[in-house]
Amino acid sequence: MLKTLQVDILNSISTQSCCSNAFLSAVISLTKEEVNENKLTLNCPIYLYDKFCGTLKNFYPDLSIRFGREGIIIQGKSLLDMLSQLEIAYFNGGQAEIVNGCNENMLASECCKISYLKGVFLCVGKVYYNSDSLAKSNGYSLEFVFKDYQLADDVLALTKFLGLNLKSVKRGNNVVLYSKDSQVLVDFLVKIGAVTEAFEVQNSLVMREIRNDANRKGNCFDANLNKTINASTQQVKAIDYIINHFGLDYLDFSLREVALLRLSNPESTLSELQKLYPTQITRAGLKYKLDKILAIYNDLKKSDL
Fold first, then answer.
1. Are 293 and 239 in contact (CB under 8 A)?
2. 67: which of 15, 48, 208, 294 is 20 to 30 A away, CA to CA?
C-alpha cells in the first residue's frame, strides 16, 4: 500500500504557488543537511526527487540542482531568496538564521496546510494496516518521526487544527506523533486526498468486523452447544439410574414421557424436544420436568450414601 500511497500523494499536490511553496518548505525543513549562502544540501527520500525538483525549478528556474553522495545539492543566485520566501533561513552579513518549525503565515489557508502535511508525511511519515481480513493483524497505525522538537510541536498543532487527534511521545532522540486509531488513519488518508487507500482501510475494517462478528456468533453457538450436551448428559445419566435401580414407574406419568423423550433424543436441544413432545408444552415447562427428574435423582443418590 505504501508505494501506491506515495505516488497518489505526489500526484495530488496542488500546483498553486501557495500550496507548492508549502510542500517545498516541508521537504526542505525536514531533510536539510547543510544550509549556507552558497549551497543547500538535502537528504530526502529518492521517490521525492522528481516531484520536488520539478516543483522547485518551476518557481526558481535559475537554481541548479545536482545529485551527489550527500543527496540533492541546490545552488544559484536565487538560493537566498528561495530560502527566505519559504521561511527556511535568513542571512545577515553572511550569518545564517535557521528557522525552526513551520511559519503560520505560509500556512494561512487549509489547502496550504494540507500540502505542507503531505510533504511532512512523505519525508517522515508512515502508515500500517493489514488488508488481509483473515490474518492476524498488528492493528492500524499512523506515525511521524521528527528530529526537530519544535517542528514536531507545530505539526501536532497542525494536525489538531485539521481534526486529527495524534499523540506525542519521545523515542530516543526523536519525537514521534502517532495514532493507532483506525478511524484517525482513515480521516488522515481522506484529508490528504488518498481516497483509494482510505477506502481500502475502511473495507478492511468492515471485513474484519464481519469476521469478528462471525467468530463471536460461532463461539456463542459452541458455548450453547456445550451447555446443551452437558445438560443432556446429566439428564440421561439421571434417567438411566432411576430406571436401572427403581424402574421407570418410579416416575409419575408426565415425567416418564419426558424421560423417554430425552433417552430417545440425547443430543437434542430443549427447543427440538419441545417440537417432539406429544402435547403442547413450553420450553420452560419442559425444562421444569427435566430439572425435577434431576432433583429426584440427586435425592436418591443422597439416600444411598
1. yes
2. 15
Tell me the C-alpha distance between 76 and 78, whole Å: 6
What is the Rg, in whole angstroms, of the alpha carbon atoms belonging to the chain?
A: 36
Q: What is the pLDDT of residue 277?
A: 85
Largest Cα–Cα separation, the chain: 114
Are 7 and 132 in the same domain? yes
- pLDDT digits 0-9 by tens, 247-261: 888 888 888 888 888
Element (H or E) spanning 146, and its range? strand 141-146
Q: Is 78 exposed, middle or buried (0-12, 13-18, 19+ CB in 10 A)?
A: middle
Q: Which three cell numbers stand for residue 105?
A: 503565515
Q: Is residue 210 part of a domain?
A: no
33, 153: one domain: yes
- Same domain (yes/no): 231, 125: no
Q: What is the mean pLDDT of each run of 10 residues along the chain (305 residues)?
A: 77 88 92 89 90 92 88 90 87 75 79 92 86 56 92 92 93 93 88 81 66 63 65 85 85 85 84 85 88 88 71
Which DSSP state fits 32?
E
What Å distances lie between residue 42 and 3, 118, 279, CA to CA?
21, 18, 87
Query: According to the model, what pLDDT value does residue 134 have?
Result: 46
Q: Would you state the pLDDT for residue 176?
A: 95
Q: Which of 19, 174, 158 is nearest to 101 (CA)?
A: 158
Helix then strand count (H, E) for the chain reads 11, 10
pTM of the model: 0.65
Distance CA 185, CA 124 (A): 16
Cell of 132: 488481509
DSSP state at residue 101: S
Q: In what order do the strands lie in the sheet with 32-35?
A: 32-35, 40-42, 71-75, 64-68
CA separation for the pair 294, 239 (Å, rounded): 8
215 in a domain, yes or no?
no
